[in-house]
C-alpha cells in the first residue's frame, strides 16, 4: 500500500512543483527575449536619426557637399523601406528567429563598416547595407514579440515596452548622436552598435523560440518580391530627393509614376499567383489597414518634431551637438516611464481608441507649442513644455496603434503584417520629413523675399512645418477613433485589466 501510495501520490508530488518552477522560468525567459528584441530594434530605429546631429562633423571630415551629404541619410532610408515587406515574408517562410538573427548580424557588420569608413563611397555603401539588415530584423521583430505573448494582459505590457522603442528611438537617437559626437567623434555613433549587436545575436540564439510555421521555400513569389521592393525603393528615392529635384519636376514625377506602375504590376501578380508574397485579403483587415494609415501620419508628425526641433536648437539657438542631445532627455524620460508601465494599464482599462486619441492630441498640442518658439527662445519656457507633452503623447499612443495592427492577423502571417506596419511607419517618416522640409524651405524663401533676415525667415519655415505636423497628428487621432474596431484582443475583460493594474511582469 505504501508503494502504491508513493507511486500514485508521492511520485506525483514533485512534477507539479517542477511545473510551477518551469512556468516561472518560461515567463522570465519570455521577458528576457522581449528585451533582446527591443535592444535589436532600438539599434535600428536609432540609426534613422542618430546621424542628424553628426552630419556637420561627417561633412567636414569626409568632404561631402551639401547635396551628397543627404545620401548618408537617404541610402539607409532607401534600402530600409525597400526591403521591409520582403523581409517580413521571408520570415514567415524560413522562420522569424532565423531572419532576425541574419538581419541583426548584417546590421552589426555594416555598422562596423560605417564607423571605420574613411571615404564617402564606403560610408554610403555601408549605410545602404545597414538598411537591408535593419529592414529584415525589423520586419520580423514585432511578430516574434506577438508570438511570445499571447494573453491580452501580457501582450499589452509587452507592447508598452516595444512601443517605447518605436516611439522613443527617434528622440533617443538625437540624444545619443549629440553626446557621442560632442564628447568623442562621429565614428562612435556607428561603432556603439558593435557590442550591442554582438550581445543581441548571442542572446537571441539562447532566448528566442525556434518554433515557427514554415511554408515550402521553393514557392517564394520572386516576381512579387522584385516588383514591390523596386516600387518601394523608387518611391523612397523620389520622396527623399523631392526637395532637391523639385516636387513637380520631371525627375520626381517620373520616379513616382514608375513606383505606381510597378506597384500596379505587383498587385496584378498577387491576384493571380497561388502563393502570393502578400495575400491581398490582408488589406481587408480593418485594424491593420487603419493602423498603417495612422502610422504614416503619426510617423510624419513625430519625425518632424524631432528633426525640426533639433534644427531649431542647433541653427537658431546655436546649441552644440551635446546640448541638443541633452535637451531631448526630458522627453525621453517621460516617454519611457509611460510606455513601460502606464500605457499598458490604460489600454487594458480603456481599450485602444481613447488612449490613442488622447496621446495624439497631446502630441499635436506639443507641435503647436513648438510653432510659437521665438528667435531668442528659452529652453525651459519655450521648448520644455512641448517636449514633455510630446513625451506623454508618444508614450501613450504607440501601444494601442501596434496592438490594434496585429490583433486581426493569423500567427503564420504575423511577419508579413509586421512588415506592412513597419513600412507604413518608415514611409510616413520619410514622406513627412520630405514634405515638411519642403514646406519649411518654401516658407523661408517667401519670408526672405519679403525682407526678413536669415534667422527669422528660417524660424518662420519651422513654424509652418510644426503647424502641418500638428494637423498630421490630429488627423491620425481622428482616423484611429473612427475606424479602429474593438475586438477581444484589444478590449480585455475587466478582470484582466484589474490583474494588470495590480501586478507587473
Query: What is the fold-level CATH name, i.e. the topology of the largest domain?
Result: Growth Hormone, Chain: A
Shape type: globular
Distance from N terminus to C terminus (CA atoms, Å) equals 44 Å
Count of individual domains: 2
Largest sheet: none
The share of residues in extended strands comes to under 5%
CATH superfamily of the largest domain: MFS general substrate transporter like domains
**Which regions contain 5 or more consecutive residues with pLDDT less than 50?**
1-23, 488-505
Helix content: over 70%
Order of secondary-structure elements: HHHHHHHHHHHHHHHHHHHH
Number of distinct helices: 20
CATH class of the largest domain: Mainly Alpha
The total of beta strands comes to: 0
Radius of gyration: 23 Å
Summing up helix and strand content along with how strands pair, one would put the structural category as: mainly alpha
Judging by the overall fold, what is the CATH architecture of the largest domain? Up-down Bundle
Give the mean pLDDT. Answer: 77
